[in-house]
Amino acid sequence: MLTYPQIDPVALAIGPLKIHWYGLMYLIGIGGAWWLAKRRLADFDPTWSKETLSDLVFWVALGVIAGGRLGYVLFYDLQAYISNPLLILEIWKGGMSFHGGLLGVLLALLWFSRKHNKRFFELVDFVAPLVPIGLGAGRIGNFINAELWGKATDLPWAMVFPTDPAQLARHPSQLYQFALEGVALFTILWFYSRKPRPTMAVSGLFAICYGCFRFTVEFVRVPDEQLGYLAFDWLTMGQLLCIPMIVFGALLMGLAYRREGRTA
């Protein structure tokens, strides 16, 4: 069994001001995506200025934060937030939904594509390989917060998390998700998108891979306490949200290559 490193969730405290590692992970994810977007900009659209790219990053970041928080409220714990709406503002405590953030980003990209006369899926294809940086950083934030841990196990890399009332050795599912949603997903999308691909193909591959990775890890991750299992006594909310994502991703890739075959 591995020892949990006991990292203080507060990275820096200056009087009453506290800077949490969870919030810093979002800054790392956004900053890393911005840096990589600059590297890819010439291939995507050399006419874009740095200011245009900065605007894109701003609206995507806004979509991530607003959509992620509202998605968590709607999908995972609506009753608690109805009882105390001010909890919505306490994002440093965690409570962000990837699927809500995804919807927020898609809405931001839809608005941005119309403003700058870009095809929507061209823009999504450009942004998709950048997303795993934020996903991976966010999972490290979950690990530091000692939240979203996995089921009990006797595997040699199990950990006892300080937030676990039962103090059982558990799967470090946050690290599994970091490895899959962060490292593996970035590697797949980055190398796949380095060559010209039909429009929608990169977006479709992102949806398929993320959906499959998340669906798989949910089998060893403890479901949200307030929800439990929602279908067949083994499907979680995360898995239910991933199913249409995987199907939609497959449809996008199929349509992308079918259209390319017609125009070849």
Q: Could you describe the 3D structure shown?
A:
The protein has 264 residues and is mainly α. It has one domain (10-263). The protein is 61% helix and 5% strand. The protein contains nine helices and four strands, in the order ββααααααββααα. It has a two-stranded antiparallel ribbon. Strands 3-4 form a two-stranded antiparallel sheet. 38% of the residues are buried.
Primary descriptors:
EC 2.5.1.145, 264 residues, transmembrane helix, transmembrane, 61% helix, globular, two-stranded antiparallel ribbon, Phosphatidylglycerol--prolipoprotein diacylglyceryl transferase
Low-confidence stretches: none
Structural class: mainly alpha
Give a count of the beta strands, DSSP E runs of length 2 or more: 4
String of helices and strands: EEHHHHHHEEHHH
Globular, elongated, flat, extended or rod-shaped: what is the shape?
globular
Largest sheet: 2 strands, antiparallel
Beta-strand proportion: under 5%
Mean pLDDT: 91
Helical fraction? 55-70%
Q: Measure the end-to-end span.
A: 55 Å
Strand order of the largest sheet: 1-2
- Number of helical segments? 9
Rg for CA atoms: 19 Å
Number of domains: 1
Write the layout of secondary structure elements.
Blueprint: E1 10-14, E2 17-20, H1 21-44, H2 50-76, H3 78-83, H4 98-115, H5 120-127, H6 131-144, E3 159-160, E4 169-170, H7 173-192, H8 201-217, H9 237-263
